[in-house]
Amino acid sequence: MIQGAIAIYKREMLILKRRFLRHAAGQAISPLLYLVTFGYAMGSQIKFNGISYLEFLVPGLVAMSSMTQAFSIATDINIARFYWRIFDEFLSAPISNMAYVTGEVLAGMTRAILGIFIILTLGLAFGVNPLGPWEFWAGILLNSFLFASLAVALAMIVKNHADQALLNSFVITPMAFLSGTFFPVEKLPGWIHYILYLVPLTHAAKVIRASLLGRPVNHLSLLYLLLAGTVCFWLALSSVEKARD
Amino acid sequence: MTGDAAIKISGLKKRYGATMALKGIDLAVAPKELFSFLGPNGAGKSTTIRIVTGLTRMTSGSVFLNGYDIEREPTEAKRQFGVVQQQINLDQELSVWENLDIHAHLYGLSKRERKERILELLVLMDMEDRAQSLVKHLSGGLKRRVMFARALLHRPSILFLDEPTSGLDAAIRRRIWGIIKEIQQMGTTIFLTTHHIEEAEFLSDRVAFLDEGRIVAIDTPESLKSGIGEWAVDRVKYGRLVTSYFKDRQEALAYKEEGGFTLRKVNLEDAFLQMTGKKVRR
Prior knowledge:
The complex is a heterodimer of chains A (245) and B (282).
Chain A: H1 2-18, H2 20-42, E1 47-48, E2 51-52, H3 53-71, H4 73-83, H5 86-91, H6 97-125, H7 134-157, H8 161-178, H9 190-196, H10 200-212, H11 219-242
Antiparallel strand pairs in A: 1-2
Chain B: E1 7-16, E2 19-29, E3 34-38, H1 45-52, E4 60-65, E5 68-69, H2 74-79, E6 81-84, H3 96-106, H4 111-124, H5 140-152, E7 158-162, H6 170-185, E8 189-194, H7 197-203, E9 206-211, E10 214-219, H8 221-226, E11 231-237, E12 240-246, H9 249-257, E13 262-265, H10 268-276
Parallel strand pairs in B: 3-8, 3-9, 6-7, 7-8
Antiparallel strand pairs in B: 1-2, 1-4, 4-5, 9-10, 11-12, 11-13
Helix pairs in contact in B: 4-5
């Protein structure tokens, strides 16, 4: 199992290495624009619970970035599957579905961690302390594990590139904007508030924000991320079979 | 484990919605044999290869590779073969070496084995100087050779080749044929799908004619051809090409002089046409 997972992970890392500068620049541009526009320009006059909007925004961007970067592995799987047909090579190799999913999920998590370092570096440049306690890193790791697993599951189910783009538009983008990244979910009407508490990114944003600001962390949120991540990983495992036509 | 055949396919059927792509394939390929599936596009050749290599689920039937059941013992069955798919499926952004190295990792080769085997196969494919080239910079023929090297890395005893010379020019096709013959001489069982008549004739120990998901004949190329005669004369009648077959050359020559325009040896295309009423190349 381990050899197969290493092979899948190594392939993704070789591709990431080849595209590193393009990839890193792509990862930096959106958070930088959010920081400048919402955090620095518009947010300089806004305060939430005694903190500046910039201090509120940086943890939200960390949570959002760990989600989007981990989920972006789906696009590369999609290209490998429908465009380069490399996925056929994995299906005909003597490796288990567990090995394949583990390799891809680890690759998604690695991308997420890389994205986080870029945001933390940008945050530091804007005067926000980027280092938090263990709950901060646990929140990032669990969130990226969850969304990398979800990415693999959905990448196996979609039938073409267009379906993948739709998933990004209808699943990831709404989550990115509504799950406590840019504003506290409590500001929304009660019933929406309850729905948003079912969304894992809401919990990730809360854990990461509390830990970065030195406030008490609700460990149930970490448990929720772990459970939701485990379900997504299981979904990914069972969906690999569906990719065989 | 079951039987002595390297490849044993029984009652293989595949349904895609309302279409029956394979209607019951039965065949056995002996160890070290070069067996070809010849048929027009859409006959079911690639579907068969995709099922036996674990890419597509069968509707019913069974496939054993060196005695291992592809459905029930997939890991062991997949260790038995290498495959060169019809489409180029290499990582274009990675180098030749990196592509081969990833494949060797997938099959659990040690670091030392990986290095030795990659070098060995690059020499076999006459590509030692291209190890660090990015795949996207290679010609179609070189990419095919990388795919052959990759399929052979883990020393499989069975090699599946799905239209391996598709889209290549005549000179490169002949080079690939040489490589296929060389691989067979090393003791590898080869299962080839093709719609190139000359390829099937030149390479195969036995050929199966596949038409609309069914095998219509299996035999050596010589036996398949001998059933219809040795010589063929092509004539145009009422605007259509009509071919007549003769055992005797003199008889064929006399017929040609009555208005035929080609006298030639019978080939597998003629045999396929006689059995199915269709041409392999449509």
